[in-house]
Task: structure prediction
Amino acid sequence: MIDSFYLTAFMMGLIGSGHCVAMCGGVASSLQLAVKDPSQAKLYTVLYNLGRLLSYSLAGALVAGVSSYFASQSLLLSQFLSYLSALFMVLVGLYIMRLAATLNWLESLGKAAVWQHLVKLNRYLMPLDSKTKALAYGALWGWLPCGLVYSALTWSISAPSALEGALFMCVFALGTSPAMLSLGWTAQTASKWLNKPIFRLIMGNFLVFYGFYLFTIAVLKAVH
Result:
């Protein structure tokens, strides 16, 4: 169960990384221009992604810590979280295939509630003239409103502890890392491959069917 839990995290990140290219492409690519020393650009790209991973892990720990406490008090709530996770897997699949804007409302909510305040901190990190700033820059942009990340957080809600929620989001971030790292170094190639319609269609269908599978499992558990 734990293995499939983390495998799901990695696959969500890997399959959805084309969306990451679209969402964070400008930010990651701009690192090449923002870094004062061009010879440090690759290192700063790694640090940026490490900062993003740390933010995702922190968010996963917070969400899973709170939800696991309340879920332990109610079997009904625990079952509801299982259904919610399956639902969001289907929504992510449709989103990746670009058949429906199923997660745009989440991004709008995040932008209004959190991001409009956090983005103001960006001015303290420019120019990127130190490794610490590059790490902090990634950590800040890790809170960028993103339907894919929010969906992964919905999955981390079902984690049994804050630690496992953090690990889930960490593995999710690792799934997105190949695309994001290559984005910083060879942006056009990564974007062209990950946004091919056939790739989005295959991977999106995989997530949709997996979501229905998880929903079926949750129903069977509830019945028995």
The radius of gyration is 18 Å. The mean pLDDT is 77. The longest helix spans residues 162-194. The chain has nine helices and no strands.
